[in-house]
Write a structure and sequence with these properties.
With 228 residues, this protein is mainly alpha-helical. The protein is built from ten helices and three strands. 68% of the residues lie in helices and 3% in strands. The longest helix is centred in the middle third of the chain and has 22 residues. The relative contact order is 0.13.
């Protein structure tokens, strides 16, 4: 029974994490325990374990007596996430530059080729999956395992804010040839240029988002004036 329950909450965690990464579950999506239990065929106690793990990974937010929701970071937190990712992934790029094995180079090249084909074919879901795979591969292959774990977390949190702040009408956050150019620097170096280019790549991605402070004007009289 314990093993089955563990498998059950792991499946929930994995599927929700992947759905968030590929932007199929947008920020703010409600995750009722009963609904999740019905979908996965598990008890509410198993669902609660999964939600607790997702909350610890900053994927969802939970408040007492409220339904859990996919996280929706504000603009300040979004900028902080990108700043942290530039530091971490820039350092990983520097550590790997000029030191890629043949297998690492071939694996990255294959993912990037798939990404470009998906973009040309208009397959946005596949394109997003491949784009994420490029950066997740760097996290997995990082010579510094602590930085790799940090990057894995930041990739997920970045995916959430991209889904939240993608400019209206923009179908994709895609920077043509950026990953191919990054691969060239990772393959040949120098380390400083690889780090700089990675940080510029992430800044360009952040620049595709609408992170302007939203000014709203609330007319309380029109809203509350008729309450008598």
């Amino acid at each position: 029974m314990p093993a089955t329950a563990r498998n059950g909450d792991q499946q929930i965690v994995d599927m929700i994490r992947q759905a968030v990464l590929t932007q199929r579950l947008p920020p703010g999506t409600r995750l009722p325990e009963v609904t999740l239990g019905d979908i996965f065929g598990v008890s509410r106690s198993v669902v609660r374990k999964a939600l607790t793990r997702l909350a610890s990974d900053h994927i969802i937010v939970q408040h007492p007596n409220q339904v859990a929701r996919i996280a929706a970071p504000d603009i300040t937190e979004t900028r902080e996430i990108f700043a942290a990712r530039r530091l971490v992934e820039g350092e990983i790029a520097a550590l790997m530059a000029g030191k890629l094995t043949h297998a690492q180079r071939e694996n990255l090249a294959s993912i990037i080729d798939q990404e470009q084909r998906a973009h040309q074919q208009g397959d946005e879901a596949k394109r997003v999956e491949c784009s994420l795979a490029v950066h997740r591969y760097l996290a997995e292959q990082s010579p510094n395992r602590v930085l790799g774990a940090m990057l894995t977390d930041l990739i997920l949190r970045t995916s959430i804010v991209i889904a939240l702040y993608k400019r209206s009408g923009m179908q994709a956050c895609y920077l043509d040839h950026e990953h191919a150019d990054l691969l060239t620097l990772l393959e040949n170096g120098p380390a400083e240029e690889a780090s700089r280019r990675m940080q510029a790549h992430l800044s360009a991605l952040e620049g595709l988002l609408d992170l302007r402070a939203q000014e709203t004007s609330i007319d309380l009289a029109s809203i509350l004036g008729g309450a008598e």
